[in-house]
Amino acid sequence: MKTNITLLALMLAATATAQRSAIAYTEFDLDNGMHVILHQDNSTPIVCVSVMYHVGSKNEDPTRRGFAHFFEHLLFEGSANIGRGEFSKHVERAGGVLNANTTADRTYYYEVLPSNQIELGLWLESERMLHAKVDQKGVDTQREVVKEERRQRYENQPYGTILLEVLDRAYDTHPYKWPTIGFMEDLNAASEADYQAFYKKFYVPNNAVLVIAGDIDVAQARALATKYFKEIPRGADVVQPSVVEAPLKGERRGVVHDRIQLPAVVLGYRIPPTGSKDYYAVDLLNRLLSSGNSSRLNIALKDQQQKAVATGAFNLPFEQGGLAILYAIANAGVDAAALEQAMQAELERVKRDGVPKDEFAKLVAQLEMESVQDRSRIAGIASDLARCHMLMGDARLVNSEIDRYLALTPDDLKRAASTYFGNDRVALHYLPVGAKQP
Amino acid sequence: MNALNMKATSSTARRAACTALLILPLIMNAQLDRSKPPVPAQPPAVHVGEHKTFTLPNGLRVIVVENRKLSLVSVQVRFDMFPIVQKKHANAIELMDELLAAGTAKHSKADIDERIDRMGAQLATGPEGVYASVLSKHLSAMLPLFADVVRNPAFPEQEFQSARQRMTSEVKQRKDDPSAIAEAVGRAAIFSKSHPYGEIATTKSLGTLQREQAAACHAKFFRPEIGYLVFVGDINEKEAKALAKSHFGDWKPSQRYVVVHEDGTQTLDGFGEVRFLDKPRVPSGPRRVVMVDRPGAAQSIIRIGFPLNLHPKDNRALAAQVMNTILGGGVFNARLMQNLREDKGWTYGCYANLESDRFNGYFTASASVRTAVTDSAVAEMMKELERMRTTKVTTEELDLAKQFMAGSFGRNLEDPRTIARFALNTYLNELPKDHYSTYLKRLDAITSDDVQAAAEAFLHPDNAVILVVGDKNKLQARLAPLSWNQGQPVMELDADGDRYVETFEPVRDRTAEQVIERHLEAIGGRAAIARIKDMRMGLSTEMAGTPVEVMQWYGPDGLFRSQAKANGAVIQEEIFDGQRGLRRNAMGTVELEDHDLAEVRFNGHPVPELHYAKEVERATLSGRTSIDGKPVLKVHMVLFAGGTVGDYFDEQSGLKLRRVELRSRRAAHGDHHGL
What we know:
The complex is a heterodimer.
Chain A (H helix, E strand, L loop, with lengths): L1 H17 L7 E4 L5 E6 L5 E8 L13 H8 L11 H8 L3 E6 L4 E8 L3 H14 L1 E2 L1 H20 L6 H9 L13 H6 L2 H11 L5 E7 L3 H12 L21 E8 L5 E7 L6 H14 L5 H9 L3 E9 L6 E8 L5 H18 L3 H17 L4 H15 L4 H10 L3 H11 L4 E8 L6
Parallel strand pairs in A: 2-7, 8-12
Antiparallel strand pairs in A: 1-2, 3-5, 3-7, 4-5, 9-11, 9-12, 10-11
Helix pairs in contact in A: 1-13, 4-9, 10-16, 11-12, 12-16
Chain B lengths: L3 E2 L1 H17 L28 E4 L5 E6 L5 E8 L4 E2 L6 H9 L8 H10 L3 E5 L2 E7 L3 H13 L5 H18 L3 H14 L11 H6 L2 H11 L5 E7 L3 H12 L10 E2 L5 E3 L3 E5 L11 E6 L5 E10 L8 H11 L7 H9 L3 E9 L5 E10 L3 H17 L4 H18 L4 H12 L10 H6 L3 H11 L6 E6 L1 H8 L10 E4 L18 H11 L3 H5 L4 E9 L2 E9 L5 E7 L2 E8 L4 E5 L2 E4 L2 H10 L8 H4 E12 L2 E10 L4 E7 L5 E7 L13
Parallel strand pairs in B: 3-8, 12-16, 12-17
Antiparallel strand pairs in B: 2-3, 4-7, 4-8, 5-11, 6-7, 9-10, 10-11, 13-15, 13-16, 14-15, 18-19, 19-20, 20-21, 21-22, 22-23, 24-25, 25-26, 26-27
């Protein structure tokens, strides 16, 4: 039985590779320790220049929660050679777009430009790394902007605080406890010394990966990357936090009153670090539960029992061990307890009966489709290359990560469900303000 | 300067780099001049790819864009529909969309879902068509299912019931979703609720919907003779032709027609009466403010808008887009973004959106801002609209917008579906054949005069609807001056876009006096309150960067004094000795009279409820309502001195949660109990 399934997985793996060609790339290190990855694809005359820094909210001082993301905003303010507000002007005047994002583990900056402007992208990113600069007006303005971002994304949205509430209960000591958006009182307390220290410590070439992808000539791109970045001095080695979070040991149950009409149930489970075998197993379990209309939570909770209007299950992919978050929003007239029971029943079913192989094959088909779609945009390929190198330790995974999924068997899913979707968890009921607690 | 300044590091690094160059003259790169942006190479040629097209005998036009880069094919069917006023059947078309993939004669919903997921494919339905994306190896298995969903939806009764239930839940959810309210009520306020683009589904309209209406919409609009079938990706014309013929070739053109009756009304069999949009709505009426109340909201959502008569084939449409880009569309350097975010720090983002549309275009400018700056933000946004009309844009702004738009055009071509979209737009909007191949040339030719002309033609701040979804109590008075609607400066709407009417559940087991008595008990009881000799209350805040402090002193026998300071200097004082009152400010000192005197007398007690017998002519218990989900009782009071007051008491704790004062001197109507 087991052999057959493995064989099936192997056959599917073979078809999966047949449907897509490998992403070709070149990589090398500069003397200052910066890693560079180049990917050539001349089909559209655009180029993506990006830098990922191995710093996120988990690297923050616990009294400066939200600093990494706030700092990301500040790094658009300018440099020794770029005045306030000029950074984005250079890009837009060249016909490009720019943006950045911050997670618990890393900060990512990118520009997508017409390919003749590759050097502009490198100039801007090297200015940002070499001698970023921000004046008081910039600090004060961006602090207010971040506060508005927090209000818009978390406070003025129904169910907007789910992530904040789950993280706070899921961790006791690890910096993953606080959300990347942080807390405003901490940002108010940030001073000049904080900016200097953070920049000096984390924004160094040996803590960064530069990716240039798109309509490039590899030899020329290599020369240009060297030209703009080689003079940036290496910094001290960056040491990632080594907090070891104790197992949850029991259930953290809570009720959150929100301005909502329909109750919701949210379950949070600790999962292993990204890249580990079981990380992929839990990720596949999430897909089994909620990916596609024929997924289990959709069929059971939405179509058959009509207890939910929406369901979902996804991994928070943290490199030091994240969470799987499962949620359902109740249909009108259904209470949270009944909804939770229905979710729990689906979890128990996987633990008890496992996953039939034809249903497993469905997950593989979805993965295969995704792995092809992921190649449709050069900007997506660039960020995936950076992620694989920096957070997974090997850029080659851009092509081979799918094999880690395909190596899993239905039994792995059953085992992962029993191991990770147990009683040690966060369980939240979101209830309308004023609703009685169960 | 208190700034992040890394200059020391930089010059050291630069010196080190220079030294290295001197020692190693073999390095070819000339010394890097960091002070200026690098000079770009020749711009790459932007090539708009080709599409192939042919028409089946039944009228279905097929569009094919071949691109073999990925083993992926997308298939889309799109119908040339025109908007109808669905009236009391609002959302029949949306219901049709919900039910398209919920079962056909051959396949149940569960069967369709299972088959799609087994291919790892995506299938999405919409009110105007169906879209699917699939690996090329599964295309031949996908197409029969795709065609079945497009051609033969069965609208099963049970699926209809659950779809309607789901849509009803979503409508309920909207009540607590400020962004969804802004979207729905914004459309209703801009287009009116009797316009196809302004209709809003309500629990009531969904309650009257029948599955037959969804089926009638399908019979009317999903017909081959008004359809386009679009293939993009790993497929060529020949393969597409074979698939189109075998799955759509036998589809008979048999549109269900609208019947025009003698009295001019029109009906569609199975649907009932329909009305069509006869002409586009244009900006009209005075600038006005509408609000949807969100007590205690963290932010206000602002949406300023008006309808436009702007067809995509209008030769000013491109200049209008350039204008909108400079004002607030897409670029970070747009005026709205720079002003409200980068200069003021009021918002995470402020955007303008100008849509040309073959039936009815529109303009909106939107932002989410904190409550305290809401009126200032609206004023700045209106100022920016005005400035676009009255002054010419700078060369720098114009160049940036044009370069950015040219860049976006090139970037969008990375996705082969863009070429199909261009083709579809060209047919649906009857654009010239070379519309997209000449895009970059036409864009380059646009001048600042064209931009200003477009602003004059398509920006109408004087007729704008200003929608604010936020805290009404804090904002109503401050937004009123921004409205030119004299009769009703701020109109309050509910989450369905209807005029807001406060509704109460009747409460018959107690009187207004008992509710007030209960409140007095809750805060300590009459006896304890009577022992309060004096009370002092201080408030401090910041207005436009200036620290403001307000102090209030309450003494015995109605003695009262208040003082407001800005930047430490007294700007206003009020003193009341129990009989007479004075107000002192920059305008001088005046004795309070009439309503002002009544107001200070009414509010001049630490616990005004203790003195209601003297002040309140009559009090009514309006009934039970809710604040933030908590049951509250409202007491409506008419004052001897004129004006009315509404107090809201928490039913459980007896504490006062809100007070609404109206300065109107007119007495309220209705039953009342003397106090």
